[in-house]
Design brief:
The structure holds 2 protein chains of 2 kinds. By secondary structure, chain A is α/β, with parallel strands linked by helices. Chain A has helices at 2-19, 54-67, 80-88, 101-109, 158-170, 183-191, 202-207, 238-247, 251-259, and strands at residues 43-50, 71-78, 95-97, 113-123, 125-130, 150-153, 178-180, 197-201, 212-215, 225-232. Chain A has 2 domains: 41-122 and 227-259, D-Maltodextrin-Binding Protein, domain 2 (3-Layer(aba) Sandwich), CATH 3.40.190.10; 125-223, Periplasmic binding protein-like II (D-Maltodextrin-Binding Protein, domain 2), CATH 3.40.190.10. Chain A is built from 9 helices and 10 strands. In chain A, strand 1 (43-50), helix 2 and strand 2 (71-78) form a beta-alpha-beta unit. In chain A, helix 2 (54-67) runs antiparallel to helix 9 and helix 3 runs parallel beside helix 4 (101-109). Chain B has one domain: Orthogonal Bundle (MetI-like fold), CATH 1.10.3720.10. Chain B has 15 helices and no strands. The two termini of chain B are 13 Å apart. In chain B, 36% of the residues are buried. Classes of the chains: A alpha/beta, B mainly alpha.
Chain lengths: 265, 265
């Protein structure tokens, strides 16, 4: 049966294209500062990283591999809390980069971190709207207007906790239509036009700049997220993991992170 | 019947018994894991948390409605596939199984592209009737029905092909129209197949996660079914997730076992 399988393939391809819609759009400038690490490291490094780090970490991973021949960086991007659960249940990984200290704490409290976590960037929330902001949203209070559908992250994940903090700070009572499981899911609801706005990280809005507008709002200053990174206690390749963690502070990596919309810690 | 059954019980060939036993262990072991790790001491208070019952009620309601929808549309579809020869029947039969091979999350995206606010059908529904399916309980039913219907169609079609068409021909020669024949002869003949398909369909709808969270979003009381509640609980509280999973398992296995005894001999 050729027909159905080719239809399936087409469907799958469409879906893949959709999923990849936000794909990494080349991290730009070839970065001046050399981040060459001192000790020679090699082998596979498995990095579990918050969904919001997807684009920048992919780029940094490529740079790291280029600067450290013989290394291969493998990423698993998901909601920070899901990753923390995986680690605490014994998932084999070398490095964990979370989108919030609270989530990182669940890993270090369980004794799965090697040393203290280091904050390497900060992120802030913006209001993501459809391109051109058709509903004319100018601040948090506009999100409560009738006819404006809003997606938030669930409170259990960092972007949801930050959204709650910002909304509380602004004293805005908001009933979203959905509480998404991670920031990318919330953003995709805006991209698909199913909601009019979502509270997402500035970096996510920036990565999807072709489809959405990111609107800064003052109250986001009350909900800045620190991103800590830690080498895991049971890391199969500890030396390479430490090298990658150190690499995050290199000029090259900093340039990628800043270009993505992150702030220096 | 009884003598042969007794005979098989007497001598079970080892090449069958061994893999059968292993298969059973493989299926049951994860369940044992849940039971062993369940926080039995705090179980009563966790059960009475308001969110739990809300999600359970929503799950049972939507799975049942989705099953009804599948019965109304799926049984006629199965009859068509089994009894009527038409060009492209093989293709149609293959298309029916698409939701089986499609990852549910992709199914959810596909549903959004069709029934979403800007979807092919959804934009028309929205502008004409003001109906918007995403983020509603009806949306959950649609997502579950989409994923579960193939199970029903395949089961019923199989049953229909297995029946002796001479009964239907006899009914026709006695003057019964096709609709009467279907109602009075065909349907009673395939009742066990329909029952089995219904059970499968309901079970699949109850456990549905990917298409639901993608198409209907996640909001307590409206679209947050048990699987979604389990997933989000997993973000922060593994024990709560285990409790929720156990409840879902106990309720569904209880209902299925009860129905099985009554309907499917």
């Amino acid at each position: 049966m050729r027909r159905p399988s080719s239809i399936l393939a087409a469907l799958a391809a469409t879906a893949l294209l959709l999923a990849a819609g936000c794909g990494a759009d080349a991290g730009g400038e070839p970065a001046a500062g050399g981040g060459a690490s001192s000790a020679a490291v090699s082998g596979d490094v498995t990095v579990l990283a918050a969904a919001s780090l997807t684009e920048s970490f992919k780029q940094i991973g490529k740079d790291f591999e280029a600067d450290n021949p013989g290394t291969k960086v493998t990423f698993s991007f998901a909601g920070s809390s899901a990753l923390a659960t995986q680690i605490n249940q014994g998932a084999p990984a070398d490095l964990f980069a979370a989108a919030s200290p609270a989530t990182m704490k669940t890993v270090t409290d369980a004794g799965n971190g090697d040393g203290e976590p280091v904050t390497f960037v900060k992120n802030q929330l913006v209001i993501a709207t459809a391109k051109g902001n058709p509903k004319g949203i100018s601040g948090l209070s506009d999100l409560t207007k009738p006819g404006v559908k809003v997606a938030l992250c669930a409170e259990q994940v960092p972007c949801g906790a930050a959204a709650k903090k910002a909304l509380d700070a602004a004293n805005v009572k908001l009933t979203p239509v959905t509480l998404e499981q991670d920031v990318k899911a919330a953003l995709s609801k805006v991209k698909l036009g199913e909601v009019d706005a979502a509270l997402v990280y500035r970096t996510d809005a920036k990565a999807a700049a072709a489809d959405v507008d990111g609107l800064e709002f003052p109250e986001s200053a009350d909900a800045i997220n620190d991103y800590p990174v830690v080498v895991l206690k049971d890391a199969p390749n500890k030396s390479a993991a430490q090298a990658f963690a150190g690499y995050l502070a290199s000029e090259k990596a900093k340039a990628v992170l800043t270009a993505a919309g992150f702030q220096a810690p | 019947m009884t003598p042969t059954r007794r005979q098989t019980r007497a001598r079970v060939p080892l090449p069958l018994l061994l893999p059968a036993g292993l298969g059973l262990v493989f299926l049951v072991l994860p369940l044992v894991g849940l039971v062993v790790r369940a926080p039995w001491t705090t179980l009563p208070e966790r059960l009475t948390e308001p969110g739990v019952l809300t999600a359970l009620r929503l799950s049972l309601l939507t799975a049942t409605l989705a099953t009804v929808l599948c019965l109304l549309l799926g049984v006629p579809l199965a009859w068509l596939l089994a009894r009527i020869t038409f060009p492209g029947r093989r293709l149609v039969r293959a298309l029916v199984t698409v939701p089986l091979v499609l990852p549910p999350v992709v199914g959810g995206v596909a549903l959004l592209l069709v029934f979403g606010r800007r979807g092919l059908v959804g934009s028309w529904l929205d502008s004409t009737f003001g109906i918007s399916l995403p983020f509603t309980t009806a949306g959950v039913v649609v997502a579950e029905a989409f994923v579960a219907m193939p199970f029903l169609v395949i089961a019923v079609e199989g049953a229909l092909r297995g029946t002796d068409t001479r009964y239907e021909e006899a009914a026709a020669t006695l003057g019964a129209g096709r609709w009467t024949t279907f109602r009075r002869v065909t349907l009673p003949l395939v009742a066990p197949g329909v029952a089995a398909g219904t059970v499968l369909c309901w079970a699949r709808a109850l456990g549905e996660f990917g298409a639901t969270i993608t198409f209907a979003g996640n909001f307590p009381g409206r679209t947050q079914t048990m699987p979604l509640a389990v997933y989000l609980a997993l973000e922060t509280d593994l024990q709560a997730a285990i409790v929720l999973s156990l409840i879902l398992l106990i309720v569904s296995v209880g209902i299925l076992a009860g129905l099985r005894g009554r309907w499917i001999a």
